[in-house]
Amino acid sequence: MRTLIIEDDPTNQRLMEAYLSPLGECVLANDGSQGIERFASALEDEKPFDLVCIDIMMPDMDGVAALKKIREMESESGRYGSQEAKVLMVSAVADKEIVVEAFKQGCEAYIIKPVQREELFRHLKTFGFEALQQNGPKKTSPTSR
Question: How many structural domains comprise the chain?
Fold first, then answer.
């Protein structure tokens, strides 16, 4: 599983990486603009991300704006439905308007900080990611069940 973690706080970045790196490659971005650059490069290299974790409150470009741009890039590259990255918004903010806007822009889940490993993995399971002991994580599809 390839994961992009877009988070401006180094402590939260390390925490998310510690939780997710056993499941596969993690790429870090320090803000929304850097996250967009890394996402675009992954699409160009034909190594798209399976999961994108985005902080809401960041300098330069907030998480909702970054999510909107990510969904635009996916659409422009012909990625729809199951080909799209699963997006998990992460924030200390539980503002209803921000949460609603994040879902309108295409996130699949929203976690309030501090991120708890159990809650994170519960979301990964609902996304269809299944950790395999020998072969690493796998994203299951309805046809492979």
Answer: 1
Closest CA to 2 of 37, 50, 43, 44: 50
Give the pTM.
Answer: 0.87
Angle at 26 between CA 22 and CA 126, to 5 degrees: 70
CB 7, CB 28: distance < 8 Å: yes
Adjacent-strand bridge partners of 4: 27, 52
The per-residue pLDDT for range 93-141, each reduced to its tens digit, is: 778 898 899 999 999 999 999 999 999 999 999 999 875 333 444 444 4
Alpha helices in 10-115 (DSSP H): 10-20, 32-44, 63-76, 96-104
At 15 the three-state DSSP class reads helix
Residue 51 sits in a domain whose CATH number is 3.40.50.2300
Burial zone of 115 (CB within 10 Å; 0-12 exposed, 13-18 middle, 19+ buried): middle
Domain limits for position 42: 3-144
